[in-house]
Design brief:
- The protein is an alpha+beta fold.
- It is built from three helices and eight strands.
- The protein has helices at 61-66, 87-96, 98-118; strands at 15-17, 22-24, 32-38, 41-45, 48-53, 58-59, 73-76, 80-86.
- The strands form two sheets. The chain has a four-stranded antiparallel sheet. A four-stranded antiparallel sheet has the order 2-7-4-5, with no helix packed on it.
- Helix 2 packs across helix 3 (98-118).
């Protein structure tokens, strides 16, 4: 389990995805990030699972930060409910909520440390 975002724990709504559904694909441009509200999502790089995310965990944030193509493919491991955060909302939250920005940095640092430990 990685860093969780506590901002969204009581979030209603979200989009539902069935197990096996591809949420986004490595190499495509991203215009939103996601937070897992319920269920699990796998992140794959070159077809290999590198992380499994659960409730409270975000993904897809890098594409909003550097406007580069996605580095991973995200697939619903189980039926899940995800909160989509479009770029405009993301940028507002980063500028208006320093704690949110710090949490996103912690997510990225945690993933980098995990990836480095595997090598």
């Amino acid at each position: 389990m990685g860093v969780k975002l506590d901002f969204f724990k009581n979030e209603a709504g979200g989009d539902t995805f069935q197990a096996g559904h591809t949420i986004f694909v490595e190499g495509e441009m991203g215009f939103e990030m996601f937070v897992v509200l319920d269920g699990e999502v796998e992140l794959q790089i070159n077809g290999k699972v590198v992380e499994t995310l659960g409730p409270g965990e975000p993904f897809g944030e890098m594409a909003l930060i550097d406007q580069a193509p996605r580095v991973a493919t995200a697939i619903a491991k189980t039926d899940c409910r995800l909160l989509s955060i479009p770029e405009k909302r993301f940028l507002f939250m980063v500028s208006a909520m320093p704690h949110f920005s710090l949490q996103i940095m912690r997510v990225m640092a945690d993933r980098l440390r995990t990836m480095n430990a595997r090598n």
